Amino acid sequence: MVLKQYYLGCLSHASYLIAEPASREAAVVDPQRDVDQYLEDARELDCVISHVFLTHFHADFLAGHLELRDRAGAEIHLGAAARADYEFTPMHDGAAVRLGAVELVVLETPGHSRESISILICDRDSDRSKPRAVLTGDTLFIGDVGRPDLRASLGWSAEELGGMLFDSLQEKILALPDETLVYPAHGAGSLCGKSLSADTVSTIGRQRLENYALQPMSRERFVEIVTADQPDAPAYFTYDAILNTKERGTLEAALRHGLRPLALGDVLGLVVDGAQLLDTRAPDRFERRHLRGSVNVALCGSYATWCGTVLEIGRPIVLVTERGAERESAMRLGRIGFDSVVGYLDGGADAFRERPDLIDEIKRVSASDLASKLASDSKPSVIDVRSESECSEGAIEGSLNIPLPTLGGRLERIADDRPTVVLCTSGYRSAIAASLMRRAGIRNVFDLAGGYLEWSTTAGAGMKLATPKLP
Predict the structure, then answer these.
(1) Are 421 and 414 contacting, i.e. CB atoms less than 8 angstroms apart?
(2) Which pLDDT value is given to residue 63?
(3) Which of 21, 346, 393, 459 qualifies as a FRET site for 91, CA 20 to 30 Å off?
(4) Above 90 in pLDDT, residue 211?
(5) Is the CATH number 3.40.50.300 carried by domain 2-240?
(6) Which fold is adopted by the domain 249-360?
(7) Do the bridges between strand 420-423 and strand 381-384 make them parallel or antiparallel, or are there none, so unpaired?
């Protein structure tokens, strides 16, 4: 048997290929939407991907089950509680798929979502109570469990799903032997939990000892703990969870439509007609010179997650990228189902180099300069776009905490009568925030170079100050 994990760092997402070369059969679990790597690896093993599983309808990315169905003829398998527009095989508790000498046995483990399943990997002729591994989806992470609050907008309360999750963990997952390997669908950085480990594999025994959510406690206490202090979920999460239930176009079709070079005049016309202008260059290059009205979400960070947070779903997107980065910029949007790219600016930033009437800039301020200005009579406003929990660990005295996911709804409350300095941890999120503020017409905005990390090690070393939230 071959069990291969694919870890996509920008989405903190793990997917899996299970292959049995003797029978030439393979299955993929929780695939990302760009599926070439699974197909290529299966070909190298001389196997055919005949099955694809979703452990649940993922909220943080658009899965590649339809792509594998269309390109490999794979049969789609979902939990028996799932409802979808496309044809699939419902998998009840104990249902299995055989790949030669390997058996994939389904456990229904609702909690993160109603249709959630986990998948045991067993030797076909061995005792199912002693599996080699379990693919836990978003039911059990390394160091955490799946949050039960993401389906609230679809009619499921966090308390109801939290109780289901408790039962699934206690009755199904913790009943497995300690030596069973645990392979989850997400790792550190995912917003599907609050304290995920950077490890991508563990064992039931180790999680039984170390995972805070698996310690002995009542159902009520468990629900209280796992529903508390969860990070804000981006607006696109519900959109993706629903879209994963739908018949829709493939990523290949979206890229064919969206990867069109556009002249500057055509780009400006599309923007006038309502398109969003997305610049994916690094923050320093964007802030030095960009088309007025652009939003900067750089490819060098958690690009897809932040695009899904600050861009409008369904509204046309025009890309401005470094030369050669057009496809990656569009493809990574496609991973979260943002298929509304209508083209990219041909020539990138060079296309508007000689058009100063179209160019904008965002100036940067150093930590030492900001400290000097804050000590003067003409203090600038300071807006910290980190999360509330980050700011509780230390912040610039007098700054306002407006977490980036909430900034768009508060822009009209930000005065432009004096300079405003925006910061995050290192400068990635503050560049997004500054571009949103600039697009909204707030002209007197500056970005703190190096963010709070630079401030805390230079001008503000040793400060541990609370940051008030904007009322």
Answers:
(1) no
(2) 98
(3) 21
(4) yes
(5) no
(6) Oxidized Rhodanese; domain 1 (3.40.250)
(7) parallel
